[in-house]
Amino acid sequence: MIPLGFSMLRLKLISGILNIIVCFHVLHSMPHHELNIWSFWKGDLLWNTSLNPWIFLLYLIHFGAVYYALVCPQPPPTASSEEIRLFKKFTQPSFLIGRKSIKGKTLREAQKTFRITHIDEFVEVGTYLRVYVHPKRFPRCYEIDWKSRIIAVTDSYVVLDKPAGTSVGGTTNNIEETCVTFATRALGLTSPLWTTHQIDNCTEGCVILARTKEYCSIFHRKIREKKVMKLYLALAAVPLPKGIMTHYMRPINLAPRLVSRDCIDGWNLCQLEVLECREVSWPDADIEAKYSIEDCGWPSKKKAFECKINLLTGRTHQIRAQLADYGAPLVGDSIYMPAAVAEMANPGLNPFGKCKKEYTSEEDKENAVAEWIALHGKEPAVAIGLQAYEISWDSGKHIYNAGTPWWRQEQL
To answer: Could you give the dihedral angle defined by the CA atoms of residues 124, 128, 133 and 136, in that order, rounded to the nearest 10 degrees?
Structure first.
């Protein structure tokens, strides 16, 4: 991410590049999906030719990786003296008073960021630009037969069997390589689909996409009123007992999500119910390679356990974090399995776990938490052993099931 708003010279350069893009008709007229595939396969060209600035900016704007704010936010502590000077110059009252675009706005309103969605969008001198020059990519979007992943189409919604390794609705810097975009194109719809709920990028299975903004709101309300039931298939490394599993999740929106079996003030309740658990074979090497399943250090790979789970609360990473705390991490979960392996080898490393230690000071506990977080790994490349296999609402009036989970593909 580069905060270009600190440099007016850069801003003028960007404006010039925008004009070039508008005037250049070959790539400018290329359909978005063709441009996207072209940019994916011609990645080196974006960096290695004299044409790269305007092609690259077109690509970034198309992906939703360029933002602006009317007034530059406060510079970070790492800002250089020159950046501080420019910030002061373009935010001083004598300069701002002459800008018509910010009249009647509070400073907070003027510093709010918005995505640039059109290449001919005008930005005036003094505007802050934030550009993500390395958007998170989802190459698996180009490997999927999206029509085959459509479970149902109605006047109000579409049910998609989401592939692992894809994003439902996009990220901060990539709103192009998404299930919403590719499902819309696969169905030949003239209006884009709407995201009604999320599942992790590395999770596959049922996702409901609304066809209208109105139904999107209706489905959101059903979720809030707990009228939507979600069942998952989880491929765990250790068997789980039937029954309700209860944890409390730390209210910090960062991975890894920390959970405690004890109630902690301010932490969010997490509950799931294990309905069934049966022994299955651990996925073979070919299947693991196909879905980029990482080793993660689990000591035995002869058998795994497929569990049917009713998700009672819907926290991010909930099933992954709860099962890992129980000592039954999901196959391929490169975030949570390494920490579970470490806890299994040295009980007590987890400061919130079953074998947690008593700490003599708050500082000691904070250090233990930091060390525990460091034992977790990175986000999986493609898949983990988790499928949103059934979704239903209105007391079962509407019910849909996903296809065969990836770990059983070799049995087909």
So the answer is: -110
